[in-house]
Amino acid sequence: MNNYDVIVIGGGVVGGMILRELTRYELKVLMVEKNCDVAMGQSKANSGIVHAGFDAETGTNKAKFNVLGANMMQEVCEELGVNYKNNGSLVVAFSKEDIKTLKVLLKRGKKNGVKNLKIIAKKELKALEPNISDDALGALYAKSACIVCPYSLTIASIGNAMDNGADLLVDFDTVKVERDGEYTKLTASDGREVLGKIIINSAGAGAESIANLFGDYSFKTGLRRGEYMLLDRESGNLVNHTLFFTPSAKGKGVLVTQTVDGNILLGPTSVEDGNPIPETTDEGFAFIKEKASQMCKSVPYYNVITSFAGNRAFCDRHDFIIEESKAYKGLINLAGIESPGLTSAPAIAKYVVNEMVLKIKYAYVNHYFIRKRYSIDNLFQKPFKELTIEEKNFVIKKDKNYGKIICRCEGITEGEIRNAIRQNPPARTVDGVKLRTRAGMGRCQGGFCQSRIVEILAEENGVSVLEITKNGKGSEILVEEGK
Questions:
Q1: Among candidate residues 321, 311, 313, the one with its CA nearest the CA of residue 338
Q2: Strand partners, 245
Q3: Per the structure, how many domains does the chain have?
């Protein structure tokens, strides 16, 4: 049984950032994830917004870590080779009451330390967003707001941590906890066991259940289902900024935004149904279409290429929980990390490691820490399709697989797919390849490339194509005839 200084439970963006931050020090660290891959929970079904920081009440953890994280995000993305775009955001007012809310948000944002924040009138709003509804009266304009790809950020941070010596165990569903001397033993549902001196509970929607295993019942969490619709890149010029309605108690409501990959994202809904397996609904789509049509003129719903749903965990304290457990020594709880959790992740990670972990266990700085992560065989940090002709030819000369297009919609090569299967954390499923390369994310949604991806996964792993799954056991792509 392996012993670790720190074990992180949960392979989401917050856990991933913490894992990476831990490897800046001479610590033996492990991440355990209950799913077959990382970025399978909240960090996958996420809007990808780097919020400016005017929403959260001044003095809360949300306000503090939002602004700190937003200021760190560009450097983090550059180091990890993750797409990042400063597109700005607009909270749009449709009534006099909304205008009053904008003034409250402006005042709060300035208190929180947000820069380049102002309220603009209808004329300027129309100039910035030609497709905005004629009913819009004005907006709160945050120039510092940005967008990133949430699952790319998660995968890259965990991959970089693994490149720096961290270990990862997937399909590790923690079901039992017991003290073992100075260590804590975690037991998975399949009987595997690991030991750690410090345990960081970053399990997202499962944070309460994990805390309960340690005898910690200090907080309660709930789930809000969020549904989304994604438009093809053909409609990518519908909006230029991230457009919000004025916020409510349940969140920021339906938004209309570009993604870093040029699509348009509509959503999410916010439904507290407690279902751990979120599903899309006709009611949800109708609501999204109603709100998006209220925000923008002529939304091209005929260009919707996919839809999805995810759960967002919230807690009864109505703020981020970032604290050492009073019920179990050596346990650090992170719970209720809802929006702006993605934005806050880099700052939360630095705080947890520097102000909590290192005060429990001192460690020397890792002078061999690798800051950068590369997408293509340690040569480039950007996708193959974004390289110059000269760069592409250089890569193809080294590996001819980069000259074979597998996903025609997204222009993804066989070399990129094989690299995703070999690179940390390795893709083991069709969805794993999809999240790492975008193969299957285009207009045909894998209709042409999925069969070849299955074959490549089988070849790289030395298994039958019958063993390849979409997203873990029970989602096999192919079955034998008659079975």
A1: 313
A2: 92
A3: 3
Q: In this structure, are 297 and 166 located in the same domain?
A: no
The mean pLDDT value for 270-282 works out to 87
> Is 367 assigned a catalytic role?
no
Looking up tokens 């193809």, which residue turns up?
A: 396
Q: Print the domain residue range for 21.
A: 3-43+151-220+317-360
Spatial neighbors of 271 by CB under 8 A, at least 6 apart, are 224, 225, 226, 284
Residue 274 — very low, low, confident or very high, per pLDDT cuts 50/70/90?
confident
In whole angstroms, what is the distance from residue 65 CA to residue 50 CA? 12
Asked whether residue 28 falls in the same domain as residue 158, the answer is yes
Nearest to 364 by CA among 26, 73, 84: 26
Q: What is the pLDDT of residues 24-48, one digit of tens each?
A: 999 999 999 999 999 999 898 899 9
353: tokens are 């490691």
Q: Which of 51, 241, 318, 367 is catalytic?
A: 51
Write the CATH number for 301. 3.30.9.10
For residue 399, being part of any structural domain is answered with yes
Q: Which residue has the higher pLDDT, 249 or 177?
A: 177
Distance, in Å, from the CA atom of 437 to the CA atom of 411, rounded to the nearest integer, reads: 10
pLDDT above 90 for 472: yes
- Taking alpha carbons only, the member of 308, 312, 306 closest to residue 273 is 312
pLDDT at 372 over 60: yes
| DSSP string over 237-251 | TS-SSEEEEPPBTTB
Which helix or strand (DSSP H or E) is residue 362 part of? none
Report CA-CA distances (Å) from 123 to 127, 237, 287.
6, 20, 28
Burial of 95 (0-12, 13-18, 19+ CB in 10 A): exposed
Structure tokens at 121: 């009138």
Instruction: Locate all alpha helices (DSSP H) within 183-264, ordered by sequence.
Output: 207-213
pTM score > 0.90 for this model?
yes
Residues 344 and 438 placed together within one structural domain of the fold: no
Average pLDDT in the 334-356 region? 97
Instruction: Measure the CA–CA gap between 7 and 305, rounded to whole angstroms.
Output: 39
Which of 57, 12, 38, 87 is CA-nearest to residue 424? 38
Question: Residue 180 belongs to a domain with what CATH number?
Answer: 3.50.50.60
Task: Residue 431: give its domain's CATH number.
Answer: 1.10.10
Distance between CA 213 and CA 203 in Å, rounded? 12
Each residue's pLDDT tens digit, 80-116: 999 999 999 999 999 999 999 999 999 999 999 999 9
DSSP 301: G
- Report the DSSP pairing between strands 331-335 and 193-201: parallel
State how far the Cα of 45 lies from the Cα of 245, in Å rounded to an integer: 20
